[in-house]
Amino acid sequence: MIPLQISPFQYIVNGVVFSSIIVLAAIGLSLVYSIADFANFAHGDLMTVGAFSGLFSVAIFRPMLGDVGLFGLPLWFFLALAFGMVAAAVIAVVTDRIIYQPMEDSGSIGLLITSIGVALVYRASIFLSFGSDSERYGVARQGPIPWIRESFGVAITPRNFVVVILATVLVTGLHLTLTRTTLGRKMRATADNADLARVSGIRTDEVIIAMWLIGGALAAAGGVFLGLEELVRPRMGFDILLIVFAAVILGGIGSVYGAMLGGLVIGMVHELVPLFNQWGIIPVGSRYAAAVAFVIMVAILLVKPSGIVGESG
Amino acid sequence: MSVATWVNDTLVRDPTERRIFATLAIITALLVVGVFAGVIGPRFLLFQVALVGMYALLSLGLNVQWGYAGLINFSVAAFWGLGAYSAALLTAPNSPLGMGLHPIFGFLAAIVVSALVAILIGIPTLRLREDYLAIASLGLAEVIRLIILNERQWTAGSSGISGIPSLLEWLPLTSAATTASIVVVLLALTYLFLRRIHRSPWGRVLRTIRSDEDLAKALGKDTYRFKMQAFVVGSVVMAIAGAFYAHLNLYIDPSDLVPLTTFYIWIAVILGGTGSNRGAVVGAAVVIAIREGSRFLNDIAFIGNLGLDVAPLRLLFVGILIILIMRYRQDGLLPPKDELIWPSAQKESSAASRGAAASDGGVVTDGTTSGGPSDGGENQ
């Protein structure tokens, strides 16, 4: 942190960046909730799997591509991102096929508890293959973009831009998929009423695979971005799972657009906690940012459990 | 009734159970032989007994919530921590509060604090679908851990609290034997109390709620109130276990408040048999065996030479165990059976079934999951 007086806009910039990450994670969680119908506690660790898969591929892509850059970041980083997304998507589908699918009969609660086991297996595998230390992607440190700093007094690094823009692209892509394509319509139909969808000839099995692919890829993108902004840690995903859940509940469980909105709000609040503290609105500082997200979640459950977008609890 | 018939009637009902109890008996015998042969230190064994007892208390608490009422509580570690910290802060002379009170106040504070926190988290979540409590309790655990870590002026943060007094030092036993006997008494009292309320009309309503909440509502039960009561009872038992642990370990820090502790207890309950108190106790013993056993793995030269870190292997094992139990043996080792029925009712109905067709006996062996209000013990 810069010891000087930090402009309030700086917190908003940080909030937008963090929100982008939370939105990506929340969408995947919400998709699983609406289509597979259970709270997936392994989603945070799926983000970690994506982040570490990306890290693994850096060792391959970096010597191949060298210093070729794109938007102020090395090209290999984008390939690592893509690799992480594909890896997490595949792992999500495989997990569904060998673990969740055969257990369909045990209901949403049985699947919920199983997902805890899956989360532990993911995390243990990462510990075993990468060790327990924090890692970095090795993208060179960058200062804030000078002209923005001079004209607006806020520090925005090129990687901040890349994270926000790519997250926007991914979310827009998902929106277009859901609204403009046959697959999207099938997904919405299945989420709305799986039995009805099946009766009208939709192969819900294919929809579920597509859902895990999309959810896994978006989770991995969130994980890689989090690793880029902070560190790549084996516990990174589980540590922000609470915040992601808060976003999903705020938006309304099972609503993808709610998850986007909830992610935006919770991510923003999370980063604005120090500012609110400075202004005397709340008595706690940034150490309690996760607790503030939790309090918002509990408040929503008390006032409007269906969330700000959802229709039914 | 002789001991043998009692064992036959209450403990050993079918071949699977007989095998499980036989295995446990053999392991216990081996441990005792180990002590006499001098391989296992008696202090060590007594400490493990106390640890198993504490885990059994936690499992019994979770069993009230998940096993009786179907409530998913992922903050077992937090309620345990509330109990441990209540005891440590009030009784240790060099804690930040520095009061050095009698341990009884620690236990009372543990009960009051955990009940209040349980009510606070129950109010927003218990009217909603089960998974809301799961999510909120995971968050609650994290918040409690954050508070204990950050509010150093009250909780001493990560440096922890030492100098917690032992319990009942005037007893003419070694301190290890004292704590082990205390936990056995505590466990027995809790077990009897929980079995009593599980068999009561209150317990039957909870079982109905677990299998079909709408049915319970249709029967005019205020399900929210019943779920809240079960949640509070379970949380208080967990806090008592925590307070006991503070006096067992004589030192407490926030490192055990991690979610993994909670998942150990979940394994104990679902492995033991959801809804079964006997199962919860057996499950707790198995979990301690896993925890302590994996610690010894490090000492085996062969594994030490591989350079593997045991902690992630244990994590992997715990994860796989959860998946396997949920997939292949959701009933657990000792699923609840006719222990839910009053002994006298059991006698009546077995007499009836001897007289009438054998199919009548089917009611008696009805398990928790299907056990609705038409359970065999209804006419009590």
Automatic annotation (TrEMBL), chain B:
Coiled-coil regions, chain positions: none
GO cellular component assignments: plasma membrane
Entry keyword annotation includes Cell membrane: yes
Comp. bias regions, Low complexity: 351-368
Membrane association type: Multi-pass membrane protein
Span list, region Disordered: 351-380
Keywords of the record: Cell membrane, Membrane, Transmembrane, Transmembrane helix
Biased segments, Gly residues type: 369-380
Matches recorded under CDD domains: TM_PBP1_LivM_like (cd06581)
PANTHER family named in the record: HIGH-AFFINITY BRANCHED-CHAIN AMINO ACID TRANSPORT PROTEIN BRAE, HIGH-AFFINITY BRANCHED-CHAIN AMINO ACID TRANSPORT SYSTEM PERMEASE
Name of the protein described by the UniProt record: Branched-chain amino acid ABC transporter permease
Source species: Haloferax elongans ATCC BAA-1513
Highest classification ranks of the organism: Archaea, Methanobacteriati, Methanobacteriota, Stenosarchaea group, Halobacteria
